[in-house]
Specification:
Elements (H helix, E strand, L loop, with lengths): L10 H10 L1 E4 L3 E7 L9 E6 L6 H19 L6 E7 L8 H19 L1
Parallel strand pairs: 3-4
Antiparallel strand pairs: 1-2, 2-4
Length: 116
């Protein structure tokens, strides 16, 4: 579970990251990363978008929980001051845990490199 300080909850923050962030995509996810200029020392924050095209409610919630667990693992090694939005693509419902883990970690690393 992500702490409240590590979650993006406002719609404006989601829109800002998706519109202005550096994107990195794989077959299963699109990761958008933006460096927060106002708060460079605050913790990195994550948000997740899992649309109905991914599957039914059970599938979407499973994917969301998996993405949250991956983000929790990334936080230990991540730099501070970034906002990250992970959008699950329809193919994510067919991907296993190792595939999702690899895709998110790789996309996140590329996004941070671009946003820095």
């Amino acid at each position: 579970m992500l702490a409240s300080a590590n979650r993006i909850v406002r719609g404006d923050d989601y829109r800002n990251v998706v519109r202005r962030g550096r994107k990195s995509a794989t077959a299963h996810v699109v990761v958008s990363v933006v460096r927060r200029s106002a708060d460079l020392t605050g913790p990195s924050r994550f948000g997740f978008i899992v649309a109905k095209t991914v599957g039914n409610a059970v599938t979407r919630n499973l994917i969301r929980r998996q993405l949250k667990a991956i983000a929790h693992g990334i936080l230990a090694d991540s730099p501070v001051g970034y906002d990250v939005v992970v959008r699950a693509l329809p193919a994510a419902s067919q991907a296993g845990w190792p595939t999702l883990l690899e895709d998110v970690v790789r996309s996140y690393a590329r996004g941070v490199e671009k946003a820095a």
